[in-house]
Amino acid sequence: MSILDLIIFFVFTGGIVLYGCSFYQKKSSADDFTKAGGNIPGWVVGMSIFSTYVSSISYLGYPGKAFASNWNAFVFSLSIPIASYFAAKYFVPFYRSLNSVSAYSFLQQRFGLWARFYASACYLLTQVARIGSIIYLLALPMNILLGWDIRLIIVVTSAAIILYSMLGGIKGVIWTEAIQGFIMIGGALACLGILLFSMPEGPGQAFEIAAANDKFSLGDFGASLGESTFWVCLVYGIFTNLQNYGIDQNYVQRYHTAKSTKEAKFSALFGGYLFIPVSAIFFLIGTALFAYYQVYPTALPDKPDYVFPFFIVNQLPSGLTGLLIASIFAAGMSTVATGITSSATIVLTDYYSHLRPKASDRSRLFLLKSSSLVIGVIGALVALALVNVESILDAWWKLSSIFSGGMLGLFLLGYLSKRVRNVDAVIGVICGVIVITWISAATWLHLPETGIHEYLAIVFGTLAILLGGFLSFRLFYRK
Predict the structure, then answer these.
(1) E-strand spans in 224-340?
(2) Which of 54-63, 131-140, 249-258 comes out lowest in average pLDDT?
(3) Closest C-alpha among 149, 108, 170 to residue 340
(4) What is the mean pLDDT of residues 32-38?
(5) Residue 317: is it exposed, middle or buried by C-beta count within 10 angstroms (0-12/13-18/19+)?
(6) Exposure string (b/e) for 271-281, b if CB count within 10 Å is 16 or more?
(7) DSSP secondary structure string, 86-108?
(8) Helix, strand, or coil here: 182?
(9) Cβ distance 155 to 163 under 8 Å?
(10) Distance between CA 228 and CA 452 in Å, rounded?
(11) From its phi and psi, is residue 359 left (phi > 0), alpha (psi between -120 and 50) or beta?
(12) Pairwise CA distance, residues 378 & 265, whole Å
């Protein structure tokens, strides 16, 4: 890595950290930390939502999947318009009408405090897993570039992100994410262009090689539930994205930061729809990498997730390498900062405020910042534990299905029916947890195999909560 690359990388990442820290105000309040005063433009919030989608899991995991197999995982992106539509039409106005920045206050109103604790605990587990996955992928390119110990990179990177998350709050996170979003798109486009025009017979050769090897396949269209077919990925994507937009604190908190309900609706649509073509660029990069190394064979890393960083290090011209590494860092930093800030908000609103309802604003703000530190440290520990994982995208999708715990099912149970009782919700959640555990951990627990792919744990868990709750109401309700 040249001196120019190092300068570009450190200037960018250092500038982002300083810019995020610049939003620090001595007289800021807990409300400023969690809502940013509710006056951020819709397009900025939309870019923030987009940047939350495009983590380093996307930036490295998607090219790795496309390189190793095909475009089956892209089907996840095709499900986003459905979730975005429901978000703009129903979720945004619903949450902005509630007098709480927490995504789970509704569950307490509907079913009691236990429901809020259950959903928020599932959310925190999901975020810790995601933060760890992303920090690990942030460390990969620097490990390959400079040969630094990957564990040391994880620690230093985590410290930098935690710093500006603690100081800038949600306002600092959103504005830095908007900038990082443009850097991410520019870096991905530049790399794709170089890949395609590096082919000896021009860009068309890359498409010919990819098509001959069935690299553009969206997966099998069969009815199997035990494999990652087109339908399995599509249904998984619909349920996951409905959960993202409908009950994920990362998204719900942003609805409250926009200037108006109209701009909040625009941000939900803009952020989701922008992800579709950008994710296609990442998959095309992976496909182009496959074609490139068919023409220029060489010894490649064992893990597919390492191939894109390997190309960046060995093939890109000086200067652009630094830009690409910076854009990968932009993808990861934005999502990690979001996860830290939103998780700290949940610790405050869903736990601390119940223990100390009359706490001063100063103590609430201190709790937010100390929670950011603790969550960031736990995320770094998860990243250290993921160092030897084969495919980080597979690992994240499986973890998210498990830890989501059917949150969407509980939310829909309360949202779709005003008659379902607290006890019905409890029975539904028990059914959902049993189903999720069975699908996700059948092998570990020596249970009979389900024949259902792990990605569908969230789908069947959600449906089990809905059906269990409604059936309980029908069978046991007495007027």
Answers:
(1) none
(2) 54-63
(3) 170
(4) 76
(5) exposed
(6) bbebbbebbeb
(7) HIIIIIHHHHHHSS-S-TTHHHH
(8) helix
(9) no
(10) 10
(11) beta
(12) 33
Residue type, 84: S
Given a contact cutoff of 8 angstroms between Cβ atoms, the answer to whether 425 and 121 are in contact is no
From 259, 242, 237, 260, select the one nearest 91 (Cα to Cα). 242
Residue 199 DSSP symbol: S
Instruction: Return the half-sphere exposure (C-beta side, CA atoms, 13 A cut-off) of residue 161.
Output: 32
Distance, in Å, from the CA atom of 189 to the CA atom of 193, rounded to the nearest integer, reads 6
Which helix (H) or strand (E) segment holds residue 380: the answer is helix 361-385
15 to 180, 182, 330, 405, 459: CA distances (angstroms)? 11, 15, 11, 38, 41
Q: Would you say residue 444 has pLDDT above 70?
A: no
Q: What is the mean pLDDT of residues 327-343?
A: 78
Mean pLDDT value of segment 375-381: 91
Cβ-contact 442, 448 below 8 angstroms: yes
The string of DSSP codes covering 244-312 is HHHH-HHHHHHHHHBSSHHHHHHHHHHHHHHHHHHHHHHHHHHHHHHHHHHHS-----SSGGGHHHHHH
The predicted model scores a pTM of 0.78
Size (the chain), residues: 479
The answer to whether the CB of 304 falls within 8 A of the CB of 67 is yes
Q: Which pair of structure tokens corresponds to residue 423?
A: 């006890």
Give the span between the Cα atoms of 400 and 285, in whole angstroms.
Answer: 25
Distance (Å, rounded) from C-alpha 55 to C-alpha 329? 9
Report angle CA 295, 300, 306 to the nearest 5 degrees: 120
Q: Is the pLDDT of residue 419 over 80?
A: yes
Average pLDDT, the chain: 83
Residue whose entry in the numeric block shows the structure tokens 């610049």: 22
> What is the distance between the alpha carbons of residues 239 and 245, in angstroms, rounded to a whole number?
10
**pLDDT confidence band for 168 (50 / 70 / 90):** low
Taking alpha carbons only, the member of 161, 156, 170, 157 closest to residue 24 is: 170
